[in-house]
């Protein structure tokens, strides 16, 4: 009974946190006459629910194309981030140089530069590469955001791995690369999960570069395709917008909660240690 107020407070916080998502879920199935009547309860169906707005999302708004573009761009960005960030972080974590720590901090400071300041220089790179109005431009640009944070995160995590583990692996016959892959990478898995979640979430939510570099509807990702297709002047396809919110949030929330413990471990150990 002494813990009852604590549990009650936790339940109230959970309900308040879930309220926007629940409202979006209810709104996605509401009829127009139900939604736009101010006398109706926004959390209840005052008229029978309808799936028409979700159907409209796939048949008239190219949501499937946006989702596919977001998926493959996110997977490629995550792959590039790990391919470049993990070896760079390992090198900086193992370098016996006085400037290694400062260099790692300098790499992280790149992430703090506002995207609006980098827009002109990155647009020149996109044009020079011939990737304007192509989703591939996002694959080129997004790693410039994800790699610095990933290196900073993994440096702290790799410093927590004792050198003896690699040395023992090399004594057993592995090369340094083999020792890194077979002995160090499995121990840094929580940090790798944190990098994967961070990179993919940022890729799926980034708006400025996706809006500036990609114009054709067939090349857009969810962050720009949904609002540009479902907001036409002063006409808002509100239920379809909320349906898109739910459909994007559900798989990301599922994967996030699946690896929640490892994600938290990766961020806390990577940020505190080293």
Automatic annotation (TrEMBL):
Keyword Transmembrane helix: yes
Keyword tRNA-binding: no
Source taxon at top rank: Bacteria
Subcellular location: Cell membrane
Membrane topology summary: Multi-pass membrane protein
Segments passing through the bilayer: 71-92, 99-120, 140-158, 179-202, 236-260
Broad class of the protein's primary localization: membrane
InterPro entries reported in the protein's UniProt record: BP-dep_ABC_trans_perm, MetI-like, MetI-like_sf
Gene Ontology CC annotation, any one: plasma membrane
Domain (ABC transmembrane type-1): residue spans on this chain: 67-259
A Gene Ontology biological process term: transmembrane transport
Keyword entries, A-Z: Cell membrane, Membrane, Transmembrane, Transmembrane helix, Transport
Cross-referenced CDD domains: TM_PBP2 (cd06261)
Similarity comment: Belongs to the binding-protein-dependent transport system permease family.
Record-given protein name: ABC transporter permease
Organism name: Rhizocola hellebori
């Amino acid at each position: 009974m002494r813990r009852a107020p604590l549990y009650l407070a936790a339940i109230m916080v959970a309900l308040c946190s879930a309220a926007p998502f629940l409202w979006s879920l209810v709104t996605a199935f509401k009829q127009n006459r139900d939604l736009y009547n101010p006398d109706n309860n926004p959390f209840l169906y005052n008229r029978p629910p309808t799936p028409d707005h979700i159907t409209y999302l796939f048949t008239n708004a190219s949501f499937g194309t946006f989702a596919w573009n977001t998926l493959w761009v996110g997977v490629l960005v995550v792959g590039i981030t790990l391919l470049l960030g993990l070896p760079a972080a390992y090198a900086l974590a193992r370098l016996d140089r006085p400037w290694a720590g400062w260099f790692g901090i300098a790499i992280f400071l790149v992430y703090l530069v506002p995207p609006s300041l980098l827009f002109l220089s990155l647009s020149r790179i996109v044009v020079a590469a011939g990737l304007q109005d192509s989703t591939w431009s996002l694959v080129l640009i997004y790693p410039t955001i994800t790699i610095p944070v990933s290196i900073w995160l993994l440096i702290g995590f790799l410093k927590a791995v004792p050198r003896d583990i690699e040395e023992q692996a090399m004594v057993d016959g592995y090369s340094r690369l083999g020792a890194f892959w077979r002995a160090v990478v499995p121990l840094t898995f929580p940090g790798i999960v944190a990098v994967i979640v961070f990179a993919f979430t940022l890729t799926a939510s980034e708006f400025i570069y996706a809006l500036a570099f990609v114009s054709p509807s067939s090349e857009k990702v969810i962050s720009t395709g949904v609002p540009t297709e479902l907001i036409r002047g002063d006409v808002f396809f509100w239920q379809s917008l909320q349906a898109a919110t739910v459909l994007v949030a559900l798989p990301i929330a599922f994967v996030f909660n699946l690896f929640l413990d490892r994600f938290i471990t990766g961020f806390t150990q990577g940020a505190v240690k080293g």
